[in-house]
């Protein structure tokens, strides 16, 4: 059996390089920088574009808005729910939980998330809640639809060391972005509930390295944008 180059040479995965390449080369106005293991609700693109057509005020040039999809995990023997009503049923039956509920729940819980999961599904999309990356959302790592104007990810951070999206979220906090949570759209991680992160067990050195790099990035960003005491780059 052949050993892949990454494993053979003990390389780390440059996840932010991949994210930046994908975002920069996208030929659409809107970009959805999701992960390959996250599945959106059926017909999300069509519904989102119709939503924007109905609400162009959300994407005017002077607006710092992005559009967040809440994230969930489902049991390994379950199918990915295609709509919010089915997700709610799975949630009640404990076949679905918040993403990383057993690892870092505050990293992915959306503003008013308890109300979001109880709100009845309606036709189309609208804004359910709006939050900043501060206060209860201080170390939030949301997945969202954005445009090319949003900041890129720092390529010094790798997958193994975690926190690779924190620098972008921190920058957006300083810039005062509104994270607008959509009401009837969500993401599902590939079936299977995470109990512990693989990185925590296998890549302790990289965890420490990414933590140090994030603090360096924080100082650099403060030199560019100024300090904002309401913002924090990661959980240290």
The overall average pLDDT, rounded, is 92
H-E order: HHEEHEEHEHEEHEEHH
Number of domains: 1
- How far apart, in Å, are the first and last alpha carbons? 41 Å
Strand content: 5-15%
Pfam families: Glyco_transf_49
Describe the protein's topology.
Layout: H1 5-8, H2 15-25, E1 30-31, E2 38-40, H3 44-54, E3 65-68, E4 71-74, H4 84-92, E5 96-98, H5 113-116, E6 127-131, E7 144-147, H6 166-174, E8 178-182, E9 187-189, H7 198-202, H8 204-225
Parallel strand pairs: 3-8, 4-9
Antiparallel strand pairs: 1-7, 2-9, 3-7, 4-5, 6-8
Describe the structure.
Helix content is 32%, strand content 14%. The protein has 236 residues and is of the alpha+beta class. It has one domain. It has a 5-stranded mixed β-sheet with strand order 1-7-3-8-6, with no helix packed on it. It has a 4-stranded mixed β-sheet with strand order 2-9-4-5, covered by helices on one side. Helix 6 packs parallel to helix 8. The model has no long low-confidence stretch (mean pLDDT 92). Pfam families: Glyco_transf_49.
Q: Could you give a quick summary of the protein structure above?
A:
By secondary structure, this protein is an alpha+beta fold.
Name the descriptors.
9 strands; 8 helices; four-stranded mixed beta sheet; five-stranded mixed beta sheet; 236 residues; alpha+beta
